[in-house]
């Protein structure tokens, strides 16, 4: 299951979105998901107080100086494939 994706034009779906909606609803908050062109833009909006929460933001030591990260709820694996080129 994807962390998040757009289903069609504007409907955001995925495990990160589902968990965020559930937690916010159970805590009595309403939510609106906004698409940003990059994670850097999302972090800037968070730091400037224009958004309250980001999903799927990767941890770095420099980001941890300005934002709070929750413990990971899952792990992603990436596999890379390429052609094996014979020695000449």
From TrEMBL:
Residues 7-73 form the Solute-binding protein family 3/N-terminal domain. This is Transporter substrate-binding domain-containing protein. It comes from Pseudoalteromonas haloplanktis (Alteromonas haloplanktis).
